[in-house]
Structure formats: structure tokens, C-alpha cells
Amino acid sequence: VVIAVSTALLVGPLQARSIYLDGIASALYVSNYRFALEGIDYLGASKPPTPYEHYWSLGVEEQFYLLWPALIIGTAWFIRRAAKRRGSPAKSPKNPYILVLGLVGVVSFAVSLWLTSELPPMAFFSLPTRAWELAVGGLVALTVDQWRRLPALAGSITGWAGLLLILLAFFALDRATPYPGTAALLPVLGTALVIGAGCAAPDRGCGRILGLPPMRAVGRLSYAWYLTHWPVLLALMLMPVFLAHPLWLAPTLLVVSGGLAWLTMRVVENPFRFGSTWRRSPGRSLAMGGAFTAVAVGVCVALVVLLPTPVGHGPAACRRHSGR
Predict the structure, then answer these.
(1) Contact 286, 293 (CB under 8 A)
(2) Residue 195 C-alpha from the chain's centroid
(3) Which of 239, 261, 156, 158 is nearest to 201 (CA)?
(4) What angle do CA 103, 58, 16 make, to 5 degrees?
(5) Computed from CA positions of residues 220, 223, 228, 234, in that sequence, does the dihedral angle turn out positive or negative?
(6) Among residues 211, 212, 168, which one has the least CA distance to residue 191?
(7) Residue 246 has what DSSP assignment?
(8) 1 FRET partner, CA 20 to 30 A, in 73, 252, 298, 304?
(9) What is the DSSP string of 149-182?
């Protein structure tokens, strides 16, 4: 809603209409497919960027929340059915879930590799091409007991190796790198190793650095910071002072978006995440989420309707041809 209202103040009607449509798609958690169908290059600059562009990952996240539990429930159903056929008590061993997640991960990674070369926007934005990354997280969660059996030294080495992969991705990947493809293995596997190592030796290796209070504070703020950084960056880039002095852009972005992120976390995120009114009642929580979604969609629709028409009324003027 804040982005939509700001767009009305800062952007002309021609570009604003497309931004409001992006806002509607983002509120409904399908902006990733809108961007994919439009052929947006997230790492490039082929089109004017939209302030909702970073919401693509929230679309993938919400689709994951809807589809992944169904996959797990389906797996549990097959386990119970097989147990009934054997005449033994129904159990829920981890191996079938590991097998299902592994199969989903392999198929998704293969599709991601193919689409990265054939249809890059769809490879970047869609859930099927990102599902393998989510599957890796699920596999780490299902194998926590195995990670905990690592000796402390091995856990420390594993953590440092994972952090090295993440840093390598940060410094080695650029706009020319086909992504996700094989390049996504660096941050995904690196993160999996860091988390797994934290199960084995949380107070050793890179865990000592990641567990410092400043690092934990950034982690707590990271979600809200992700939401604020992109629209703030686009707003700052409209200001002439940063065109004349581009070196001021990065520190200003950190301060402004970080301050807004802290305010968002304190005023919006945490009160609704931890408020007892919502935590005690799934029904109220779902109703609140639905109401916020409806408000966001309603505001963007209203702004689309209220946009001034950028062209005149009546029949088009006749074209004039100059003779030679």
C-alpha cells in the first residue's frame, strides 16, 4: 500500500498503471509469474524497474506454503496405506519423505538447468525451477540427527566451507552469469552446509561469527529490510543529488531502508507475528491475512481506476504527409 501511494506521487500515469498491476499480482502472490511472462530480466535493465520486482520471491514462498504441505500430506497418506496393506501399525519414518524431497529436487533442478538456457525469465521466477532449493532445505531439516553426529572439528570445517561458498557466490556471480542454473548451487549448498554445521557445532567455526549480537540483529531485521530496500533504492535514484554523487547512494540506502525496516518490524511485523490475539486463533490469523490482502488489492485497483487518462478523447487526428 505504501509503495502504491508513493507511486501515485512520484511516477507518471503511463508507468504507474503497470506498477499498480504489479502490486495487485504481488498482493495475490503471483507476481513471479507476471514478471516471468513479461520476460523481465531481474539482473538486467532491459525495462524500467518496478518497485514490486523483489516481491517475486514472496510469490514463490507463498506457493511453497500452499503446495509443499500437500505433498507431505500425500506422502503420509501413502505411508499409512502401505502400512494397512502390510497389516502393521502405521508409522511415519523419515526415509519416504527424504525420498520424495530428493525426487522433487532432482526433477526441479533438471528443469531449472533446461529453462535457464531456453527460457531464462521462467527459470528465474517460477516455483518449479526453484523447488529444488526448497527441497534442499527440507532435506537438511529431515537429517538434523545425522548432522548432529558430526564431530566438532568436522562440523567447524563444514561450516567454514559453506560460508566460503556463499562468499564465492557473492563475489563471483554477476549479471552475465546464467541464473539460477548451476550457479545457484553455490549459495544453496553453502547455506545448507552452514545450517547443518550449526546443528553439529553451533558455538564453533563460523558459528562464533554468525552468533555475534550484531549479526543476529541483522538476521532479525533481514525480512523487513528485504521489503524496504528495493523501493527505497528506486526512489533515491530519482533524486538528482545521487545522480551527481553516486557514491552517496549506498550509505544513504542502508540508513533509510534500514530505518524503515526497523520501524516496519516494530510496528507491523512483530506485533502481528507474536500478538496473542492472533497466535491463539488460526481462524483470526487467516482472516487478518485475507483482510490485508484484500486491502492491498483494493488500493491498487482504486488507483488504477483513478489514474488520469494519458491520451485525449475523440477520434485520432489525421496524419499529415509531406510531399517531395
Answers:
(1) no
(2) 19
(3) 156
(4) 140
(5) positive
(6) 168
(7) G
(8) 252
(9) TS-HHHHHHHHHHHHHHHHHHHHH--TTS--SGG
* CA–CA gap between residue 178 and residue 182 (Å, rounded): 8
pLDDT tens figures, 106-118: 999 999 999 999 9
Cell of 204: 564453533
Angle of helix 31-38 relative to helix 13-27, nearest 10 degrees, comes to 130
Dihedral sign of CA atoms 25, 26, 29, 35 in order: positive
58-112 pLDDT tens trace: 999 999 989 988 988 998 888 888 878 877 665 668 888 999 999 999 999 999 9
Range in 78-87, 184-193, 208-217, 269-278 with the lowest mean pLDDT: 78-87
Write the burial class of residue 111 (CB in 10 Å: 0-12 exposed, 13-18 middle, 19+ buried). Answer: middle
Spell out the alpha helix ranges (H) of the chain. Answer: 2-10, 13-27, 31-38, 56-86, 94-118, 120-125, 127-142, 144-148, 152-172, 185-200, 207-210, 213-237, 240-244, 249-264, 270-274, 276-279, 282-306
**DSSP for residue 238:** T
Distance CA 63, CA 66 (A): 5
Give the single-character DSSP code of 317.
Answer: P
